[in-house]
Amino acid sequence: MTDRISVEIVKNALVYAGEEMGLAVRNSAYSPNIKERLDHSCALFDRLGRLIAQAEHIPVHLGSLPWGLRQMLEIIECEHGGVREGEMWVANDPYITGTHLNDVTVLRPIFHRGALFGYA
After folding, report:
1. Residue 112 has pLDDT above 90, yes or no
2. Taking the model in full, what pTM does it have?
């Protein structure tokens, strides 16, 4: 897939997936900070932890997400032997996630046919 049209279609589909994640967060939230101010961020990463798509919520979080993801994965690898299909990890330690204490980072590994594909 190297033609510009296909690349643009896939890029926009991935960004929209981030927007859909944001809708799920907003619809399940009680806080007006999340519901009205959109004080949350959603992104997709490849299996190496590289950012591949992000929704346009609060951009300041997106600077810390790749770093926090790498920190979380390092801890998960050391303490649990890596991620497994069906798991989700939650952290709010500012020294791990690079955000303040009120921010919660949720990490979900994405598997395809038993192989790690990326993270949401």
Report:
1. yes
2. 0.85
